[in-house]
Amino acid sequence: MCATRISEVPKTFGLNNNGGSLFCYSRCEMKSLERLTMEHALVGRGLGALEIIVRKIDSGENVPREAVQKLLNFFEVFGDRYHLIKEESVFIPSLEDGCESKSQCDIGPAIGEAYDGHELARILLRDMRSSSQRLDADDRKLAFVRNAVDYMGLMREQIAREKNMLIRTASFRLADEDRRLTRSFRQYAEREMIPETSQQFASDIDAILSELSVTVPPARRRAYSRGTIPYHSEANQAPRF
After folding, report:
1. Which residues pair with 58 in a beta bridge?
2. Higher model confidence: residue 139 or residue 238?
3. Residue 125 counted as domain residue
4. Which residues does 122 contact at the CB level (< 8 Å), separation at least 6?
């Protein structure tokens, strides 16, 4: 088994939401699974920003409307169109191809849960977008917070489930398909005209956090890059609901 060393992971991708290291569960290094794992980490950073917004709303603070809209754009473009749809159209079908039949596939239930979770995430995201237009109204504010809390819980659960089941299984079942899978990921990004490196999306999250007045001292950034602490430890506390 090999692990992707934290020193080799770009700082912009961060750690998972619980501050854990970015590991590639594989007998040999698989670039395709590294890519999915780093995408999960970047989505996790977005969820941390969303939780900060929820906390500010809950405490009665004003939240920049632009920051909310930019974050929802991030979840719609990167989280859904780039990551989730890529899993549905490239990654999961590759896993299913390794089964004799879908009905007898040992990870069939996990795949079904992934599809269901993706659809629910889209519904919650649409509802957040709708309520975000009038965060000055109490009913819209409450609706946004409820949907945001549900979305955060769902996405974190999805990421953990995929890491523990789908990615772990793929590291063995698709070990010989890494080049093909990596190429398919790249071709998908090109078709969708989305930067495959994700650096721009990471910069967007940095800008959103700046608008939310969230700063990270250099020492904490260094510890974060070593994988010893979460990037935004305050985002790991339970919201007051």
Report:
1. none
2. 139
3. yes
4. 80
